[in-house]
């Protein structure tokens, strides 16, 4: 350990504000960039999933209406 | 060899490989970066000239290093785009350019904050800071051009040309800025004076550079995946991927 | 087909003849629209005027900063004129015909760029001594300044041609063009003003001028290729 106490570590002999600002901004930006990239991929996947689900539902609805058509047809004979 | 090359061009193959690779990249990168930073902050000895402010080096140098090598990687990808028209290469350029821009900004920011205790001022028109600023402009130009062209294929090829023109210019810019710097002020300021750093100082630096490299790899992978998803949204494999993720 | 092409390239219209034709045509078209020729020059003079008004009319300040001011103003007015380099030909379809010519496109681009320099860069160089006197430059500095502009402005036109070709047909092409090109102009600016500064201190400038000439030769050999491929990309875009 290059420092004698935690307060000495934080103060860094007066250079503390500079060092800690740098580290804070660096990790903030890095983590924000990583989170944004993760979230973008997830948003894309979610969007496609929703679109697919909608298409599936539309297809199922179509199938059902077709089925009711045939059932209406049945009593005729 | 050629089969591998062919596979490398296939977005589907890359997506799968990236998914498998990414946890490792993230874990190893975070471990290396954090251990390098903790070692550098708490355990490395104090610099006898600059005192403790030199500890900024453990993030400044990795950011600056990656900002520059990301541009070189983009240039390699640009050659591949123009010569072989490989889809993945241009996906790489598009995905990585914003990351490079951020890293350049971080290198500049940490450099400026480091300059305050060392030189007594936030900004010095030092050769290295100035050429990093110009690198920031180059990244900005690449991103702006890519966004301005609506057609995907011509956007890719136009940015590839711009990246290559930039990479030819980078050594010239560097040389000219250094020449200008010596012309205007005596060469007094240097961020890292001693090439003979003791190992307690440079080993943590090496760790954090490697760590940021791996995290950069992770970022490149995930951003390329997003870009691939956009471009291939109508293909069957993307549909299957989305379906598989549903349940 | 190839036979036909070869004949077209070799005998019917030679390379130099084609370049000359493109060059002369651009000059002729430009002289029909004189206002476009005068605008960059007016801009040049106005930007230079802003500095004594905006910063200081002191002789000491102007003597020190004058060369830099002239260089920045020249750079900006070249930048302003670049939008015209391919724009008209793009709008009326001439450019597509140019691309279809059997002659290599980069040579035709080179001819167009040289014409552009004759129409903007050269007048700037000729105007520079007058403005140099107005910003209190000593005679020796003015001579060196004109020499650096003479070597530097062709490089500006050549590098700018790449940007003009890349941004052809885009919305807000003008601003984008500046964003792309200004970073690439920085070395020319540095060497141009550095040479004048060295001359003002009485140092020999032969080496500096040779360096600038080397930069110009590099731009002359590489930029037309980049601009030609950028043109093809932009044309396939539309």
From TrEMBL, chain A:
GO annotation terms (biological process): cytochrome c biosynthetic process; cytochrome complex assembly; heme transport
Q: How does it sit in the membrane?
A: Single-pass membrane protein
Transmembrane portions of the chain: 18-35
- Record flagged with keyword Membrane: yes
The protein's UniProt keywords, in alphabetical order, are: Cell inner membrane, Cell membrane, Cytochrome c-type biogenesis, Membrane, Transmembrane, Transmembrane helix, Transport
Q: Could you confirm whether the keyword Hydrolase appears in this record?
A: no
Q: Where in the cell is it found?
A: Cell inner membrane
Please state the protein's primary subcellular location: membrane
Got a GO cellular component term for this one?
plasma membrane
Function recorded in the entry: Required for the export of heme to the periplasm for the biogenesis of c-type cytochromes.
Its family?
Answer: Belongs to the CcmD/CycX/HelD family.
PANTHER family the record matches? HEME EXPORTER PROTEIN D (PTHR37531:SF1)
Would you tell me the protein name for this molecule? Heme exporter protein D
Q: Which organism is it from?
A: Marinobacter lutaoensis
Automatic annotation (TrEMBL), chain B:
Q: Which InterPro entries match?
A: Cyt_c_assembly, Cyt_c_biogenesis_CcmC, Cyt_c_biogenesis_CcsA/CcmC
Name the Gene Ontology molecular function terms of this record.
heme binding; heme transmembrane transporter activity
Q: Where in the cell is it found?
A: Cell inner membrane; Membrane
One GO cellular component this record assigns the protein to is:
plasma membrane
Please provide the record's keywords in A-Z order: Cell inner membrane, Cell membrane, Cytochrome c-type biogenesis, Membrane, Transmembrane, Transmembrane helix, Transport
GO-annotated biological processes? cytochrome complex assembly
Q: Which family does it belong to?
A: Belongs to the CcmC/CycZ/HelC family.
* Protein name, entry field: Heme exporter protein C
UniProtKB/TrEMBL annotation, chain C:
User: How is this protein named in the record?
Assistant: Heme exporter protein B
The record's GO CC annotations read: plasma membrane
Sequence similarity:
Belongs to the CcmB/CycW/HelB family.
**Pfam families per the UniProt record, alphabetical:** CcmB
Q: Name its GO BP terms in alphabetical order.
A: cytochrome c biosynthetic process; cytochrome complex assembly
Give the UniProt keywords, A-Z: Cell inner membrane, Cell membrane, Cytochrome c-type biogenesis, Membrane, Transmembrane, Transmembrane helix, Transport
Function noted in UniProt: Required for the export of heme to the periplasm for the biogenesis of c-type cytochromes.
Membrane-spanning residues where?
Answer: 37-55, 67-86, 106-130, 142-168, 175-197, 209-231
Q: How does it sit in the membrane?
A: Multi-pass membrane protein
GO molecular function terms attached to this record: heme transmembrane transporter activity
**NCBIfam families xrefs:** ccmB (TIGR01190)
Native source species = Marinobacter lutaoensis
Question: Keyword Ligase: yes or no?
Answer: no
Q: What is its main location?
A: membrane
Where does the record say this protein resides? Cell inner membrane
């Amino acid at each position: 350990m290059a420092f004698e106490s935690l307060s000495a570590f934080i103060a860094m002999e007066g250079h503390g504000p500079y060092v800690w600002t740098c580290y804070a901004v660096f990790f903030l930006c890095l983590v924000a960039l990583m989170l944004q990239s993760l979230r973008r991929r997830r948003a894309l996947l979610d969007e496609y999933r929703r679109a697919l689900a909608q298409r599936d539902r539309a297809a199922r609805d179509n199938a059902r209406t077709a089925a009711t058509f045939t059932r209406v047809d049945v009593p005729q004979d | 060899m050629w089969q591998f090359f062919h596979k490398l061009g296939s977005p589907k193959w890359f997506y799968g490989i990236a998914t498998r690779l990414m946890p490792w990249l993230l874990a190893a990168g975070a471990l290396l970066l954090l251990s390098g930073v903790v070692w550098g902050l708490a355990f490395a000895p104090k610099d006898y000239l600059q005192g403790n402010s030199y500890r900024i080096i453990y993030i400044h140098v990795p950011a600056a290093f990656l900002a520059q090598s990301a541009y070189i990687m983009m240039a390699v990808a640009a050659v591949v785009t123009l010569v072989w028209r490989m889809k993945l290469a241009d996906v790489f350029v598009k995905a990585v350019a914003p990351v490079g821009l951020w890293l350049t900004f971080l290198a500049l920011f940490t450099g400026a904050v480091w300059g305050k205790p060392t030189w007594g001022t936030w900004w010095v028109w030092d050769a290295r800071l100035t050429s990093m600023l110009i690198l920031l402009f180059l990244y900005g130009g690449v991103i702006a051009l890519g966004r301005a062209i609506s057609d995907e294929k011509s956007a890719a090829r136009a940015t590839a040309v711009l990246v290559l023109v930039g990479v030819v210019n980078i050594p010239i810019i560097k040389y000219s800025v250094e020449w200008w710097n010596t012309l205007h002020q005596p060469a007094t300021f240097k961020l890292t004076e001693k090439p003979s750093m003791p190992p307690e100082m440079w080993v943590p630096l090496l760790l954090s550079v490697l760590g940021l490299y791996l995290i950069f790899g992770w970022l490149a992978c995930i951003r390329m995946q997003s870009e691939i998803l956009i471009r291939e949204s109508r293909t069957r494999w993307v549909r299957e991927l989305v379906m598989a993720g549903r349940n | 087909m190839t036979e036909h092409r070869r004949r077209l390239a070799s005998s019917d219209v030679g390379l130099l003849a084609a370049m000359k034709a493109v060059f002369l045509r651009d000059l002729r078209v430009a002289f029909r629209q004189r206002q476009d020729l005068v605008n960059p020059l007016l801009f040049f003079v106005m930007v230079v005027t802003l500095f004594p008004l905006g910063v200081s009319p002191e002789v000491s300040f102007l003597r020190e900063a004058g060369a830099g001011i002239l260089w920045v103003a020249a750079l900006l007015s070249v930048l302003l004129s670049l939008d015209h380099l391919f724009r008209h030909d793009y709008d009326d379809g001439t450019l597509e015909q140019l691309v279809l010519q059997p002659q290599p496109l980069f040579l035709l681009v080179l001819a167009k760029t040289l014409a552009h320099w004759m129409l903007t860069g050269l007048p700037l160089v000729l105007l520079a001594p007058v403005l140099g006197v107005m910003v209190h430059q000593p005679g020796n500095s003015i001579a060196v300044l004109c020499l650096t502009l003479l070597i530097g402005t062709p490089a500006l036109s050549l590098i700018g041609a790449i940007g003009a070709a890349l941004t052809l047909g885009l919305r807000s092409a003008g601003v984008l063009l500046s964003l792309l090109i200004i970073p690439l102009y920085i070395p020319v600016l540095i060497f141009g003003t550095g040479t004048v500064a060295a001359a003002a201190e009485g140092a020999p400038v032969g080496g500096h001028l040779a360096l600038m000439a080397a930069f110009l030769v590099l731009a002359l050999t590489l930029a037309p290729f980049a601009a030609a491929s950028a043109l093809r990309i932009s044309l396939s875009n539309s």
